[in-house]
Amino acid sequence: MARKLTEEKRLVILDAAAEVFSRKDFHAVLTDEIAAEAGVGKGTIYRYFRTKDELYFATLMRGFDQLSKAFPVPAPPECTPEDRIQRIAADVLKLFWNRRPFYMLLHRDEKLLLDRDRAVRRKRADLERIVQETIEKGVEAGAFRAVDSRVAANLFLGMVRSALAYHRDSETASTYAVQIADLFLRGVGTGTR
């Protein structure tokens, strides 16, 4: 009698896959490694995901889903655009601070995602849109200078991504969130020349 598939087991497999895929290129990863990391048999992996490609893609989609749930849309009314920028950085960093694999996956083996590129772009666009709308509200309120909000949103998200990829274990997500917001909003210049 076949065992029933559970969401709990699926999530354990996805977490293990994120961990293993982040350490090696896609083609170097063996399903056995993911199974060992998840504490399940190799056959269990294939009961949940028909192929390694499908598992890889599901891992990415899960990360984006977690991101979209990390902060409320629209922003609470008492939240200024400056506060919202810092909150977004803090929420994303907090969610993935000890889970570097998600961000590492997005930058590895991009050719594998070509056939599913539209779905990945749509998920990433949701996060980009939240940041972009925050910047636009800041411009409208006179808190930010007029900039291309799409470009600015991508640069901001790049700062967050770099913090996730390159932070030291001794550093904290909250410290980085404050620094990212400050650098993004004010730059590093002193204003004097």
Q: Identify the CATH class of the domain at 59-186.
A: Mainly Alpha
Taking all Cα atoms into account, the compactness measure Rg is 19 Å
Question: What is the overall number of helices?
Answer: 9
**Oligomer category:** single chain
CATH architecture classification name of the domain at 59-186: Orthogonal Bundle
Question: What percentage of amino acids are in beta strands?
Answer: under 5%
Q: Could you state the order of secondary-structure elements as H and E? A: HHHHHHHHH
State the fourth-level CATH superfamily of the domain at 59-186: Tetracycline Repressor, domain 2
Q: Looking at the structure, what is the overall shape?
A: elongated
Mean pLDDT: 84
- Largest sheet, if any? none
Report low-confidence residues grouped into runs of 5 or more.
Answer: none
CATH topology of the domain at 59-186: Tetracycline Repressor, domain 2
Structural class, from secondary structure content?
mainly alpha
In helices, the fraction of residues equals 55-70%
- Please give the number of β-strands: 0
- In whole angstroms, how far apart are the ends? 76 Å
